[in-house]
Amino acid sequence: MSTPDFDAETVSLDWNDDGTVATLTVDRPDKLNALDETTLRAIPEALDAARDDARALVVTGAGEKAFVAGADIAYMSELDVAGAYEYCQLGHAVTDAVETFPVPVVAAVNGYAFGGGCELALAADIRVASENALVGQTEIDLGIVPGWGGTQRLARLVDDETARRMVFLGDRLDAAACEEAGLVGEVVAHEETVGRAHELAAQIAEKPRFALRGAKEALNQVHEAPQSAGLEYEKRVWSGLFGTPDQREGMTAFLEDREPDFE
Ligand code: COA
């Protein structure tokens, strides 16, 4: 199966053999995958290239040490307010694009995930962490605050007290603490991190396509709308799936006591 090409200096996009799972890798290992302007612009382009074909997506960082060590501090150090706002918008465009990517995104947190790296992981649907991972909203120690969604998305995953401690103190949580806090779904041996994320993504990719998209859209409403609107949204997504080939196949297979063969 042919998959769309994507070419950028610091972001790569790779596909599994059957072209259902795309892997976006932030590839700046000499800077621990810190997100500079070029990289921030490339990530949404990579997501666009994967949008039509991917049934699940893995996000990770290149090298042995880092997922993403944050926004590029060297670049940020020179910004004035207007420049900072523009850089902030770029970061938000990245985390928004991950969050609204139409199919589930699995973050393979294979090392440091600080500041914008933590926020990138927070925007994914689910997270697998290396036992070596260290995760934190460490901006306070740079004299700033999380600016790519962390003040909003962190408290969804962890309790409010933990979120406030992380943001006020710049705490760097090790993998066990991340799992305990609910910041990651599971912790695996370092060398298995990306493989485990791929395994989960491949399992997800086997599920029926329209149901997956509908499920993600409906789940995302929790943070977008009051519950009454979210419940209404769920009704529409749910009923809209009736008549799709996968819905017919899934239910027929159950009634015929066999495994479904989804499109
Ligand atoms: N922005 C820009 N460059 C970064 C970076 C960042 N967020 N994080 C790491 N780097 C660069 C370092 O400057 C260094 O570059 P150099 O080799 O040209 O000097 C390179 O990546 C390796 O980092 P180094 O600090 O030498 O590695 P380390 O293993 O000793 O420490 C960290 C790793 C992650 C603990 C440390 O780099 C760090 O604290 N980074 C900043 C994390 C942060 O505050 N992120 C939030 C930003 S909003």
Overview of this structure, please?
By secondary structure, the chain is of the alpha/beta class. The protein has two domains: about 10-205, 2-enoyl-CoA Hydratase, Chain A, domain 1; about 210-255, Lyase 2-enoyl-coa Hydratase, Chain  A, domain 2 (Orthogonal Bundle), CATH 1.10.12.10. The chain has eleven helices and ten strands. The strands form two sheets. A six-stranded mixed beta sheet has the order 1-2-3-5-7-10, with helices on both faces. α4 crosses α5 and α5 (about 150-155) crosses α6 (about 160-170). The radius of gyration is 19 Å and the shape is globular. The relative contact order is 0.11. The model has no long low-confidence stretch (mean pLDDT about 95). Bound molecules: coenzyme A. The site of coenzyme A has 16 residues, from α2 and β6. Coenzyme A binds near residues 69, 70, 71, 72 and 115.
